[in-house]
Amino acid sequence: MRKLATIQKVKQILEIKDSDFIELIRFEDIGWQCVAKKNEFSIGDLGVYFEVDSFLPLSNQNFEFLHKTSYRKMFTGEEGYRLRTIKMRGSLSQGLFLPLVSFPELTNSNVLEDVTEKLNVIKWEREPSISMSGDIIADYPSHTPKSNQPRIQNCMEYFELYKDVEFERTMKLEGVSTSYHVNNGEVGASSHNTSYARNERFSPWVHFETLGLEKILLDLKRNITIQGEYMGPKLQGNIENLLEKDFFTYNIWDIDKYDWLSAPERYSLIGEINQNIAGDKKLSHVPILDKCIKIFSVVDNIEDLLKMAEGPSISAKLREGDVYKSLEKINGEYIQFKVISNKYLLKEKD
What is the pTM of this model? Predict the structure, then answer.
């Protein structure tokens, strides 16, 4: 579960030009920043930080001041306050930071403690696209972990830990997270949270069958899950203006080994699959920006890393951001994280 609300310590307070009422807060252990009331905090103070995409409960009076600007009703019917990236007096504000004393129930909390559940904070979710409707048959399959890379702002230690580590850098695409799996002869398709029956009401199945992937994957005699972004008309605003739906692979999971394929292994397997697909249409991969980059030797601060994520996408002028995956395992696992473009976030709609 994503840590949407955590206890943080103030590291830096910056003046905002031409403002007598607000100032900019930066934190000791994370790379986020947000605007707060002037003189509400001092260096070293503790508070509760709520990340962007938090959906705050109406029942908590601490959030009532957000009603005019942030009140939303989610497609599930829940009402609350949605936090997003905004600019105030020219300063980027990401999330919300409130004094710890405003939350008596958190009196004994420690720095970095996750208080998301204690404060009944949930993640803001968009309404699923019509094209992604279908007949639900089960939850997301337990044999494969969900792809959920942390944001770099929550991994500031990486700048020191991984200076010599080589990473793959790919585009972060704006689509619907979708998975295809083959497990002991069973073939399935899922969205981020749900498995769907095999019919045309769940449009990724149509794409799966068009490419003839079932026979190809079964013939591989490997239990795998292919994860990617399903994109195109009527999906997440179709910012790439794709004329037809497509699936862009970003991860492959080996079910038997319970491990991700490395980037070279992923490229090789997709190549093998595409050799067996008849016709010109192939299984796509997310665009690769760098096959090998020691990113934390190239940049040593979060500002420059965020600027690198502000480039164009497939056909859009501004992409969602970048995703990094280490080429080799570090302490037994691949290091993965995402860098979301602040320019993109500022243009994002509900």
Answer: 0.92
